[in-house]
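Quick log. Single chain, no ligands specified.
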Amino acid sequence: MAFAYARGNVWWIAYQVDGKRAAKPTEFKVSDPSGKRNATRLAKRKQQQVDAQRAIGGAAPTGEMTVRAYVAGWLVQRREAGHDYKADRGRLDLHVLPVIGDMKIAEVRTKHIADLVHRLRFKSDPKLAPRTVRNIYTVVAALFRDAAIAGVVDATPCILTTEQLGPVVDSDPEWRDGALFTRDEAEIMISDARIPLDRQLVYGFGLLAGLRPGEASALRFRHYDPSAEPLGRLTVAKSYNAKRHILKGTKTDAVKIIPVHPTLAAMLAEWKLSGWEKMMGRAPTDDDLIVPLPPATIARRTKRLGDPYRGYNYSSRRWREIDLPMLGWRERSLYDCRATFITLACDEDGADRDVIRDRVTHTKSKRNAFDGYARGKRWVETCTELSKLNIRRSPRRLAIVASIDER
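-> predicted structure:
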């Protein structure tokens, strides 16, 4: 039996492993009103994982294993493999296990999966977006794929097509067209003296380089080579996952070599020369993050140690709660900076869409030896196309240097 108990100032959990009691401390404090409840949930989940792992190892016939029992052990494997197991667990707990969780996993057929998807598409309350349904199905498909590989099921039942899954469309078909900044708005975001320079730079990485927020968060000064010709270059090899607080590969697992737009180069020069030191209280080194969390925010951290990555949650909140209301604009997100970069560069300023897509925004993992080289004529061509983007900082808005104290 799994349970939680207080020991010192933290809650411990106890559970059974091979007939013996095991115990370990948790991060939940006794002083926290919700600490015992959270620790008890953790204990029960740990027991499920132990039981499922034991069953997967052959202690119980796979034909008797339920989907719920297999999921417990599968999520452990997902976590060890570096996948977003928390998101997987949430989708399964909310939408899948209530429907097929108590079925024997070996008895789940394609009909059951099709019925589950039909239920998600047409009978959910509130109604789920088509992309959400696809995301849930993707987790289920991965679950049964791994079960088939492990020999728990003979074959995966997840063979549905668009006919059953439905088209991939937005729940609000009109939102995407409006998820952009105008050229004037983009220039204000990197120029307005009321926006501190560190946040201007965060916006600039999306508007001038097409970086995803996580990619910009992982950049260090050593990743920027301002001496490259004809434009400086950024090496983008990692991305910070703000949900899981880990550093991982880029979305496509590609290492991107991106030209630095002249406007972004000027911002980086100003930031390294004076802005970074004003915020952090010392001069930056090559190993320092280009835009870390401010010192006061670092001092308030209690659970996460290590490098002070400025995750999407931090930047998005300051955009949503401070800068956007101050500017008085309609609502848009930080992710729209990247869409703005693509739209302005390709649709309005004449940059070659294939070059921008294949070498900057949606670079794929290298397929052959030639793709691994970003030098010579290919590099010059990439710099030429990116520099067509016409976004400049406004001198009149830069007249006052914004304070870089803790916001």
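The longest strand covers residues 20-29.
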